[in-house]
Design a protein that fits this description.
With about 325 residues, the protein is mainly α. The protein is built from 16 helices and no strands. About 80% of the residues lie in helices and about 0% in strands. Helix 2 runs antiparallel to helix 3, helix 7 (about 130-145) packs antiparallel against helix 8 and helix 13 packs antiparallel against helix 14.
């Protein structure tokens, strides 16, 4: 719409006391229309984003408007998280949580759902202690209000176990992981993504305990199920592929690791795209494995592609990735 037409329309709405009505209408429409933020909806999200930014400039006070604002912020947080913009995702998730908490109380199911999103964003930023504290509170409230067997409670248990593994609290992590895995298996069946998530988490616990054979077996089983049910190009399958590639690479199985990284990279370059954080992580790990077998020329090519994408990165975790890529390329190019 032409800028002069926009100004005229705004003045007409204000003159006839219609501004609030149409701001509210726009908020409700966008909150209902805006997609989940998963990679296959990015095009639709991009088309709607300019309108969303305008709508969110106005904090409408009525209860229903505030709840719709929280709903829209939650979807935007999911979008930012899926695109690797974890700091932005965290701030949006935090605002959505605060809105719902102020209107519904701290233990309402919707509030607890927003709470877990905040914790997920903290995990992605390696703020593990903050995430652990939130998940401990969330799990306690969920057990009280939803029950210990509710799927949301089981998700919090699994996520908490992931955080505890990262902090090497393995006994508590294993107890939570096995409990949530068993109940998820009963409620969802063996091939459900939630069940496979628990299985992969359990494999990581086994790895930390030095039980490499069983850890690898569980990772292979989980990847096989994801490929059969979801296909090779699904983000969850690619995550499992990457996890197994990292594991077998550490075990010295370089050829298999390279094959898995190549397969994951070929899918990630199509979606979510060559400059997405996950794609760059896969590319870096592929380069490191190629270095290990002496293929320095191809490794350098991958590292240069990462560094050429530097302008796209703002997150601290991505900056670390860039530093590592620079160091590896310098090692390859400097005379030995």
């Amino acid at each position: 719409m032409d800028r002069l037409v926009q100004i005229a329309a705004q003045e007409w709405l204000e003159l006839h006391n219609e501004t609030f009505r149409w701001r509210r209408e726009a908020l409700f429409i966008l909150a209902n229309l805006f997609p989940s933020g998963s990679y296959d909806t990015w095009g639709a999200c991009e088309a709607l984003s300019p309108h969303v930014q305008v709508v969110l400039e106005h904090e409408l006070q009525p209860h229903d408007c505030a709840m719709k604002r929280a709903e829209l912020l939650q979807k935007l947080a999911w979008l930012d998280r899926s695109q690797g913009n974890y700091k932005n995702a965290s701030s949006k998730a935090q605002e959505a949580w605060e809105i719902c908490k102020s209107l519904q109380g701290k233990d309402a199911p919707m509030v607890l759902s927003k709470m877990t999103t905040v914790a997920d964003c903290l995990i992605e930023q390696d703020k593990l202690k903050e995430a652990e504290n939130i998940l401990q509170i969330c799990r306690t409230l969920q057990e009280k209000t939803l029950g210990s067997n509710h799927l949301d409670t089981l998700m919090s248990m699994n996520n908490l176990s992931v955080v505890l593994v990262e902090q090497r609290s393995l006994d508590e992590a294993e107890e939570l992981c096995t409990a949530s895995w068993k109940l998820r298996l009963q409620l969802r069946g063996p091939d459900h993504p939630d069940v496979l998530e628990s299985q992969e988490n359990f494999a990581d616990i086994l790895r930390c305990r030095g039980n490499y054979e069983d850890a690898e077996r569980h990772l292979r089983l989980a990847l096989r199920s994801r490929r059969r049910v979801l296909g090779d190009g699904h983000p969850s399958t690619l995550g499992s592929m990457h996890q197994l590639a990292t594991y077998v690479g550490h075990q010295g199985k370089r050829d298999e690791a390279i094959q898995l990284y190549r397969l994951a990279l070929s899918s990630e370059e199509r979606a979510p795209g060559s400059e997405h954080m996950e794609t760059c992580v896969t590319r870096l790990n592929l380069a490191l494995e190629l270095e290990e077998i002496g293929n320095f020329e191809e490794a350098a090519q991958h590292l240069r592609i990462i560094l050429d994408s530097r302008a796209s990165f703002t997150e601290a975790s991505l900056n670390k990735l860039m530093v590592r890529a620079e160091e590896e390329l310098r090692f390859i190019e400097e005379p030995q």
